[in-house]
Amino acid sequence: MKQLFAVIRSHSAPWQASRSMEYRKEWEVHASFTARATAADEIVDPLSADPWSSQDILRVSRMTPWTLRLGSLS
Questions:
Q1: Minimal CA–CA distance to 43: which of 27, 61, 29?
Q2: Would you say 46 and 37 are in contact if contact means Cβ atoms under 8 Å apart?
Q3: Is 43 helix (H, G, I), strand (E, B) or coil?
Q4: Under a CB-based contact definition with an 8 Å cutoff, are residues 55 and 15 in contact?
């Protein structure tokens, strides 16, 4: 069974606080992005496919295992 992780990302220098997320470059691609992994060390590489990672708009600041208490991901 795949482990669920909470990934906290922080904005970096290219982030423009005055712009709404929906009006940023490649918003739709970023908004639909998900990464699946069985361990925390498998998350970083797939996250690099998110355009906001490759453009250095967002950086991973913390990852932690997460237990889904309600609902399901299946």
A1: 61
A2: yes
A3: coil
A4: no
- Give the residue-averaged pLDDT of 2-15: 86
Collapsing DSSP to helix, strand or coil, 23 comes out as: helix
With residues binned 3-state (H G I as helix, E B as strand, rest as coil), the percentages for the chain, rounded to 5, are 25, 25, 50
Q: What is the pTM of this model?
A: 0.71
Two tokens at 69?
């208490």
Element (H, E) at 65: strand 58-66
4, 67 contact by CB (below 8 A): yes
Q: How far is the C-alpha of 34 from the C-alpha of 32, rounded, in Å?
A: 7
- The amino acid occupying position 56 is D
pLDDT, residue 1, reads 59
Contact 39, 3 (CB under 8 A): yes
On whether the CB atoms of residues 58 and 52 are closer than 8 A, the answer is yes
